[in-house]
Design brief:
- The protein is an alpha+beta fold and about 625 residues long.
- The protein has eleven helices and 27 strands.
- A five-stranded antiparallel beta sheet has the order 12-19-14-15-16, with no helix packed on it. Strands 20-27-22-23-24 form a five-stranded antiparallel beta sheet, with no helix packed on it. The chain has a four-stranded antiparallel beta sheet with strand order 5-6-7-8.
- The radius of gyration is 41 Å and the shape is elongated.
- The chain starts with a helix and ends with a helix.
- The mean pLDDT is about 95.
Amino acid sequence: MAGDLLLTGLSGLNAFRNVLNTTGNNIANANTEGYSRQLVGLDTLRPQLTGAGFVGSGVTTSSISRAYDSFLSTQFRSSSSASSELDTYFNFATQVDGVLASQNVGLSTGLQDFFNAVQAVGDDPTSIPARQVLLAEGEELENRFSTLDDYFKDLTAQFNSSLLANLTKINDLAESIAASNNDIIAATGASGGKQPNDLLDQRDRLVDQLSKLVQVSTNVQDNGALNVFIGNGQSLVLGTKYNTMATQQTGFDSGAVDVVFKQNSGNTVVTQFMTGGEVGGALRFRSEVLDPAINTLGQIAVALSFAVNEQHANGIDLDGNQGLNFFSAPSITPLQLSGTGTLAVSFANTTDLTTSDYTLTTDSTNTNYVITRLSDNTQFTGLVAAGNETVDGLAFDLTGLDANDNFRVRPVRNAAGAFELALTDPRNIAMALPVIGETTSTNAGTGKLASISVSNLLTVPLPANVTLDYDALSKEYTVTNATGGPLAYDPAVNSGNTYTVNVAGFGDISFNLTGQPSDGDSFALASNVGGVGDNRNALSLVGLQTSKTLSGGNASFQDVYGQVVASVGSRTQTAEDNGIAQKGLLAQTIASKDSVSGVNLDEEAANLIRFQQAYQAASQVILTSRTIFDTLIGVFR
């Protein structure tokens, strides 16, 4: 009996020593990051059968496990990933928002100052100082485009550097997780299947750190190894093996990089699958904020230079010469990804111009082509033999194409950096129109010719006066020295209508006809000789500021710029608001996780006292068994 009691006491002593050691370990690691509170499982030993029944034979330590909830851990990683994504997105987007909205750097002030200077020249067309101010404002506009372009290039480089640094961290964590898997497999095998709690905590801590960088999902193998998947399910760690991530230059853009898995057979691009965490936030910033801002800036640069140059070329300068390009002419250089053919692309108009990139491919027989607008993957198809195609304001010259060609076309991507002031001489600013209207002195009616404008001007001066003679019987003007006539004109119906005639080798002349002309009344369109005080082309240039020259004829330059500023500002604010909300959710998740896995010092202190008493009681059982044993020995002496 004394032997049984001794063994029972010893079992209790050993069990409660384990409990005390575990409790002490919990207390020691109360502030250790990632530590999960450990619990000791106690089971009764097999009882002994006696004549009176079964008598207990003590206690044994059945397990030492972690207080761990896989659901809460998954929820924590998801919240951590989302919070990091929003923080990264916001930190990058704030920079773009600040520079676009800046009065000193942003484009809005520069556009307004430029058109104010055009108006000033229109108010005093012969003023050389006013013209010099206009050139200075044109140069300032060039500087603003250049500054923004340089800023976005720097930000792109910063983005690329940050992305590479995060991928390096991911690689380090993947290697460490794979090594932890190896240690856990070995420890589990050596212990006969017992869980190595501290190693599991260490591995979970690595996965938690990984979740801040990218979205993470996991599953456990039968041998205890953890498989880790990132983004939309790309395998990063499988058992003791892991993949290595890197960046590589996007083939068509020296400044852009893709995220890849490095493999012996060749790198696999996984950019589109990377979501969550700092990596996902950065990539989403690039696609939602940075790229649209760069492309929109380029779209405005193209449209502005195209519109100003086109209108300026319809006027004459102080020396009577046709207007030259005010800004550098925008151009497009297609990037050949494969094939041996050639492709030329130019701007047909800017009204339909988008911010998208395009691809053009041909089939194996060079019979059919496919132009794809990448922003929405809309395809435009046709026969190569057609020779040309116009898509979204872009004129594609198909005559040089060959079989299996593949081109990338980026109409606006680099346009802001290429925007330059072309004029240097203030006398070359063309603020006058090359045509004036003349009314025959013998006209008896009230008919008038007004609102003259010129388009598609080829050369100056006008070869010969264009005359308009009214026939009251047929109610029309006959046109001499131009095509487009006769011009039907019924005063009761057509007064105020705009008419256009074409002068071969010169261009198109538009004008309004009003009033009640008498039979035989006539007007003439003549060269504007010596018209240095004329400001009609200046007024047309000023009108470009509010003209709906973009977005299918629905937006002006400043409208489009205002839209991108508003879009970036809205996305930045949304990211900030969502980030605050996500931080609150993360805090709740951490609290829920800590309520299960965290160490409560008050609880552990109480346990320490309780288990110390149990240990002392077990010691007393051993002393009692010794006393009984001594008594039995004394009986036989």
